[in-house]
Amino acid sequence: MNHLSKKDYLRRYLHISSPEVYGTCRGEVREDAPLNPSTPYAASKAAADLLLMTYFKQCNFPLVTVRATNVYGARQQLFKIIPRSMIYLKMGRPIELHGGGHAVKSYIHIRDVSCGELAILKRGQVGQVYHLSPDGGVPIRDLVRQICGHQGKSFEEATLDVGERPGQDAAYVIDSGRARSELGWSPTVTLDEGLKDVCTWVDGYWPTIQHESLTYQHKP
Q: What is the pTM for the complete model shown?
């Protein structure tokens, strides 16, 4: 950062943060909400946010920060809930719903995130945080129910309630008014359209996907 902060060619530095730095996000969580991470991952993201903000304040580092909610889309990592649910349905394996699937998430398609990040890079105000999120959240339980409907499967027969994951926040729903008002950004892909897109991808690449690992694999 010391090196980059001295380069005239760097007009904006887009830092990818996460709403997880806020902890549980209920109501209207705006860009100036206090940081309250509840997992080691979230704490590491918050630490990076604070470090870069000091460079902005002390060195005029051209920082702009984006926090997008739960990003999904075709070619996503297979351990994530949307592709994993579709794959389990095709395999006949039960979909485990941690904590009964009552945690609320707000899913945003990767195309909308990419358009938002481009707008932030081009027109974002240096030193500001921008949220990218849909209009509301959905309980994971209802998300999986919707996926089952697309696949013509019974939600009750396809799912299994299990214990909650450690550190699971009850909700991730944030306000994206700044990006909408300042940059003219808004999501264009509905959740139903996005789920159909992922389902088509899984079906099209099934011969390969069915042999891939469905667990998280750390790749440095």
A: 0.89
